[in-house]
Design goal:
The complex is a heterodimer of chains A (280) and B (302). Chain A has 280 residues and is α+β, with helices and mostly antiparallel strands. Chain A has 6 helices and 13 strands. In chain B, strands 1-2 form a two-stranded antiparallel sheet. Classes of the chains: A alpha+beta (280), B mainly alpha (302). β5 of chain A pairs antiparallel with β5 of chain B, so a sheet runs across the interface.
Chain lengths: 280, 302
């Protein structure tokens, strides 16, 4: 944790210095690359909507490109940070950060009362549901953007295209939203994007301990006059490492071996324990 | 201290798991049963998904029963022949049970089925145990001599076999059927089945109490090993990290429980176990009957 924090402080310092020193209007060079050497998303791609400007309107980076699920994993924070060309404010540039995780099919089941028991009744299958989704902005997205842009850009939990197979009805969709939100896997505007020094922004996206491994993508959008004028995509991955990774890999690829090892380990632990703790 | 369970894909407090293991182990040592019937519901209660709780519960039961089996074997309380017949039935039953479990999982009814099985089986077994032990306590007061076991229609079945240690000469069909049904329940409920096997052996098969626990542990060890393997192959839901944490607490608890159990008389022990079984059944029933906090549940598509 402390190492990450130091790294962040350094990155922040670098960005702050760059933003303060470089004369803005006529800079030929692209914005200073973030301290991390291999940043795949080049800042040059960031301003397709404003070709007149040579200066990238938006530069953003992530605190880490890899989140490791170890045996002690209890969740993680991804820090998204960057700077804009103009001052950030309500009538100027605004920033929207959207993160989404690997899609997975989900089943929503409604409980029904049968003979006094609550049992799983009708179900709806949602084939394409992001396992993780977080959106945060300097203001809520619906205040920044027209409704049609927000819907087509899938910016906001109510703009997610959740189409169900099987039982239909808005209640299933609402329940999916509710339960995903309760699990901390879908997050909307829980913390706003913080701005410091007028042009530097950052936001922490919380990944709960239940995140699924896979490829995640963070989109940083620059909004000006209710239009998206620049965007930058940043990828990170959530991977299982160490013993946790080994165990789940072996369990799925070598189930026979895994089962036998489980039997042997449990039997050994039982025998060993009885030797250690014998009281007679 | 949080620990990430790789198969359940969630992180839980390691101390909580050790504590649950210890508590269940203590009770299992006290009563001479594997304790799976307490463990699986407790795991579900703390939020472990039902399939993982059931599959890992079976694996934990294996470990917890090994030490008991070793202890009973040292004292010569295991009827190997009877054990092998029970295991033969148990293997068949657990194979069928795992198939049924896979089907339930596809239908999305694992939670309900597991809970219902627990309520029905624990309810019946609990009531029988309490009633029988109360009767035994009363009978002891009046000091009426009883026969070794009653002779019933079962003793007229073919394929008779002599079980020297159990002092029985009976057909192999009843023990095979007992083993089969316990093996099936074991796969669905994630238990070794000791709490059902012990009464079945005493009241149905008429095996003397002295060899019942050792012999039932013999069956439990092999059948839970079989369930572990089948669950690993078919549902992939055995979480070895969870199992080892539970066992670490469990084996310690079991030794304390066993030391205490020797000071309790058989009838009182059985009455207490019966009450405990009823309490678990009651709490599971309450969970099914009360209005749930959320009327919806979500799960990844299996």
């Amino acid at each position: 944790m402390t190492r990450t924090a130091t790294g962040l402080a350094l990155l922040f310092g670098a960005l702050l210095a760059a933003a303060a020193m470089v004369p803005l209007p006529l800079r030929a060079q692209p914005a200073p690359p973030p301290a991390r050497p291999a940043a795949p998303a080049a800042p040059g791609q960031a301003a397709p909507a404003a070709p007149a400007l040579a200066v990238p309107a938006l530069v953003a980076e992530l605190s880490q490109r890899r989140v490791e699920i170890t045996t002690g994993f209890t969740g993680a924070d991804i820090l998204v940070f960057g700077s804009t060309e103009r001052l950030i404010g309500e009538n100027s540039d605004e920033v929207l950060v959207v993160a989404s995780g690997p899609p997975q099919p989900m089943v929503v089941r409604r409980k029904v009362k049968i003979l006094g028991f609550w049992v799983n009744g009708p179900s709806a299958t949602f084939p394409q549901v992001p396992g993780f989704y977080a959106i945060s902005g300097t203001r809520p997205a619906w205040q920044m953007l027209p409704e049609d842009v927000r819907q087509s850009g899938r910016l906001g939990l109510d703009a997610l295209p959740l189409r169900a197979l099987g039982a239909q009805g808005p209640a299933f969709r609402a329940a999916l939203l509710e339960l995903k939100k309760n699990a901390g896997l879908w997050v909307e505007d829980t913390v706003p994007v913080e701005v410091s020094g007028g042009r530097l922004f950052h936001v922490r996206l919380p990944l709960p301990a239940t995140v699924t491994p896979g490829a995640y993508r963070v989109e940083v959008l620059l909004v000006r006059d209710r239009r998206i004028v620049a965007r930058q995509g940043l990828d990170f991955e959530v991977v299982r490492v160490g013993a946790a990774a080994e165990i789940s890999t072996i369990a799925s690829t070598e189930p026979m071996l895994y089962g036998l090892v489980c039997i042997a380990l449990a039997a050994f632990a039982g025998w060993f324990g009885s030797v250690v703790f014998r009281r007679s | 201290m949080q620990v990430y369970l790789p198969i359940a894909e969630m992180s839980v407090n390691a101390l909580l798991l050790l504590g649950i293991g210890f508590g269940v182990g203590w009770l299992s040592g006290l009563f001479g049963v594997g304790g799976g019937f307490l463990l699986t519901p407790l795991l579900i209660l703390i939020g472990i998904p039902s399939p993982v709780a059931v599959a890992s519960g079976a694996n934990q039961t294996l470990g917890a029963s090994v030490s008991g089996l070793i202890a009973q074997w040292r004292r010569g309380n295991v009827d190997w022949r009877m054990g092998l017949v029970l295991v033969a039935g148990g293997f068949t039953g657990s194979a069928l049970g795992v198939q049924f479990f896979v089907l339930l999982r596809r239908l999305g009814q694992v939670d309900l089925a597991v809970a219902l099985f627990y309520i029905v089986v624990l309810g019946i077994v609990g009531v029988l145990m309490v009633m029988e032990s109360l009767r035994a306590i009363r009978r002891r007061r009046r000091a009426v001599p009883t026969r070794l076991h009653e002779h019933t229609w079962m003793h007229g079945l073919p394929f008779k076999m002599r079980f020297r240690k159990s002092r029985l000469y009976i057909s192999v069909i009843p023990p095979l059927l007992v083993g089969l049904s316990i093996g099936m329940l074991s796969a669905i409920m994630g238990v070794g089945g000791g709490f059902m096997l012990v009464p079945a052996m005493i009241y149905v098969l008429g095996i003397p109490t002295s060899v019942v626990i050792g012999t039932s542990l013999f069956q439990v060890v092999f059948v839970s090993a079989n369930v572990t393997l089948l669950q690993a192959l078919q549902t992939g839901a055995v979480d070895i990290v969870l199992v080892l944490l539970l066992l670490a607490g469990g084996v310690a608890g079991a030794q304390f429980g066993a030391a205490m159990g020797t000071r309790l008389r058989g009838e009182e022990t059985r009455a207490l176990l019966g009450l405990l079984v009823l309490a678990v059944a009651g709490s599971l029933l309450w969970e099914l009957v009360r209005t749930p906090e959320s009327l919806f549940v979500i799960a990844p598509l299996p």
